[in-house]
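Dear colleague,

Thank you for sharing your sequence with our group. We've completed the structure prediction you requested, and as agreed, I am returning the results in plain text so they can be pasted directly into your records. Please verify that the sequence below matches your submission; if there's any discrepancy, let me know and we will rerun it promptly.
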Amino acid sequence: MRGLFRDSLIPLILTAGLIVLASQWGWIAAYVSKVRDYEYIQRSGYLRVLTQNNPTTYYFDRDGNKAGFEYDLITSFADSVGLEVRFIIKRSVGSVFRGLARGEGDIAASGLSITGERASRFLFGPVYNRVSQQLVCRRGGARPKNLEQLQGQDLYVMAGSSYEERLKSLQNEYSGLEWTLTEGVSSEDLLKKVWQREIGCTIVDSNILAINQRYYPELKNRFTVGEIDSVAWAMPKGAQDLQAAVNDWYRSFIEQGGMASLQERYYGYVEIFDYVDTVAFIRRIHSRYPRYSRYFKIAADQYHLSETLLASQAYQESHWNPRAISPTGVRGLMMLTLKTARSMGIDNRLDAEQSVLGGAQYMAKLRKTLSKTIIEPDLTWFALAAYNIGLGHVRDAQTLAGQMKLNPNKWHDLKKVLPLLSKRSHYKTLRYGYARGSEPVRYVQQIRQYEHTLIQQLKTISSAKRGSDQLEF
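Please find the predicted structure tokens below.
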């Protein structure tokens, strides 16, 4: 009995010693964190999510509300299982994974590609996106066409990223490949440095480039590096129950159209990038927009609309030219028809202030009419489409969507149907008949793209002005 007691005491003493040592190094907190299995997470009532603050994951919108593709996606999962989300912001992908390895979070949601090295250390949820790694340089700068020509170039990539892992795997074939690793910076930081000519080139995922080209149109994709990557949430090893819960939720989320709506909301406007048009738009933000900005603000406040959306719509209509006249007779900043102008009480369509107020009033009317069955953000896109093609044709498209077993109140479904309004086999059965249905799809997409660029440019202008004021003070 004594021997047994003594033998059983030894492990206890060793364990106590390890606990003391671990506490000195801060290991206890990490250990306790790592044992947060799904049952423990549910009892705690909250989910810890490691992410980054950038336009493709998590950010605060112009109204100060949390937004972002990853934010909405993880919030949808948490809401479905009754959990609060506590976001932990990290500076880089490398720090996200290091935090996950240290037990700081339950899930890492930050546009993370699944790589062989990562899969050996972590669990991953279902694949929700596929991206390609793209070599990005500045127009007028380096022009490598392939990996062989990339050797010897001024290349910077994030430490701990999938880009670094891909380059390492290519070194066996391209021994001259060299690059500089950066710590504590994001893809967005590196893209800006390329645009500012501080570095030659970098590698980022295709969706990140698509967003940032709206801010820095001179960024150029030179070629794709390697194969398509799968993107998913990462979880610690041992979190199989949490992984299973995520998988179950995701199947339902897909079936209910949640992912399609999310993709439309955040990426529906980036399918087409026109360099010349984007450069011209940015130039006119500085030269033309200030002349009419007060009208957009007054009208937006009066009719409860987004000022930047209204301004972007006006640019799509007239390029902020108050004297614009089309061959079909629409005219002014908001390109009002004579009938619409009269119904809105506008007597001079070429007067900038009247035109903006009339256009805003008409948009508000369309939104009110459509709001009986459609909610935001789809409501805004439906109203824009109706402004462009007419409410009757939008109603026809909704009817057609219902006949095709699509959701008539979701933009991602309606934009599939609208182009069919130009096909006789479809429009001959509809109340308002033929329409150029592809036009409102492009119209909405272009306005969303303009607004995204406008918001970022106004932020940059405001930041520069604050810096100038501080220097003068």
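Summary note from our side: DSSP finds 22 helices and twelve strands in the chain.

Kind regards,
the structure core
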